[in-house]
User: Fold this.
Amino acid sequence: MPESEMEEELGITKEELENVPAMLKKSIEYLDYFKKNNIIPSNINFLYSIEGCDYIKSPDELEELYKLGIRSIIPVWNAKNKYGSGNRTNEGLTPLGIKLIKKAIELGIIIDLSHANQKTFNDILDVVEKEQQSGKNPIIIASHSNVKALCNKDRNLDDPKLIRLKKMGGYIGLFTNGKFLTSNYKQLNYQEKEQEYIKHLDYIINKIGFDIKKIIISTDDMNFHPDSIYHNYEAFPINTISKDIYLLITKNFNKEIATNILINNPLSIINKVK
Assistant:
């Protein structure tokens, strides 16, 4: 990604990202620090993912990253890289990208489609489909993607993408960032944003027909607020968010759906990649 975006999103420089295994080790050290200092509960564990594989030198480097704990990759972020094109560009998966997807499937790493543009999204699923036909069972997910029919953002998924993901047994993680819920999110209060979120969940279940065992929750911004809130680690409100979303889904659907989406479905993914 452009250096300005790295600074904005991550607060680090290009040089720091050149060694991906070192960065992964550093992030694991941060999480250990958070646990030891009671910033996050000590009994919480993490499934590590890389969002944007720009600085993974080659598909073979996935083996080293897997040994360190990587269990999920988002091949592209917003821009184009050597593996494919993100949601702000128009090209598809590259030959090296095909090798990356196949290597990830071989290792049992989750393939995350969030941020992929139209062509890259379908190119990845073409590879996944061939691997499924050969007897493999790749885990595919769009970890933080909402419904484009309800909010016309390039990162949201249109109906053909949602239907294909559903048919291939993929998971969808609806996320709470107001910018991806509705075009007028700035004019809405918290409760109104919650109802916009419910519209996306209802669409996924009742319009697209997603199995409730294939839906998970993503916050991406840790709340219905601008994304920068999650940079304040000491204010990481994980218990409050879980409770709020559980009650919201229970009120609008039922406890079974809320429990599946918030607990059972994520655990089923984690158990598949242990």
